[in-house]
Amino acid sequence: MPLLELSDVTVSYGLTPVLFNVNIAINKGEIACLLGRNGVGKTTLLRSVIGLNKVVSGNIVFDADEIAKVPTYKRARYGISYIPQGREIIPYLSVLDNLKLGLTANRQKSNRIDEVFEFFPMLKQHLKRQGGLLSGGQQQQLAIARGLLSNPQIMLLDEPTEGIQPSIVQEIEATLRRINEEKGITVLVVEQKIDFARRLAQKFFMMEKGAIVAQGRTSELNDALVHKYLAV
Ligand SMILES: Nc1ncnc2c1ncn2[C@@H]1O[C@H](COP(=O)(O)OP(=O)(O)OP(=O)(O)O)[C@@H](O)[C@H]1O
Ligand SMILES: [Mg+2]
User: Fold this and answer.
1) Dist CA 25 CA 4 (whole Å)
2) Which residue's CA is the closest to the ligand 1 atom numbered 28?
3) With 90 as the cut, is the pLDDT of residue 103 above it?
4) 20 to 30 Å CA-CA from 65: which of 26, 134, 171, 201?
5) Ligand number with the minimum distance to the CA of 37
6) What is the Å distance from ligand 2's center to 52 Cα?
């Protein structure tokens, strides 16, 4: 049984539908990527999984529970962590206080803040700094670290490499892989960087106009598909 399964999920903004009968399934321990051009509905899909967009029809099952009508804060406690596009750390709070926010959704209150320094040693040197003073890449790492502190079963990441310098993109890729391998956390990542997605994920979902139009192993993500659905 998949850890996360969306069945015929339809989502609208007002009267305008933006997701149409979306079906995706992700197994425990997998890294999956969600691909597609600007405006196809990738963010809306992640937001509907965490409950920030209401599902008009269809079902979302997480860890054998139906969650489509469960409020967002409870979904976080079920073990779903959402790292939004643009990171959304609190700029005027210190790095440490930003990290502490991650503990509020922690199911078992087990994680200690120290644990994330294994994955993000950089943060330890900046604990007292205001989050907003970190570089874009460091803010992204802070956002992922905060998500990790909620002790998730799955992390949903929305374009974690957007606008970030290449060396940090590589670090983020390596760290996500370690988080997956060492902590067994399942990952669903929205990405525009196709090479990043191919290297990191085992499985892909391709979206166009609010629908899943192709899916498979990333090893099968050939140039024809990329050209058809991603190239401008
Ligand atoms: N709050 C909103 N109200 C109305 N329409 C919205 C809202 N947010 C997004 N949309 C529309 O819904 C569609 C899907 O948007 P979404 O942000 O999910 O796309 P995306 O694939 O994440 O795009 P990008 O790659 O630019 O991040 C777009 O047509 C967008 O204009
Ligand atoms: Mg988006």
Assistant:
1) 6
2) 39
3) no
4) 201
5) 1
6) 14
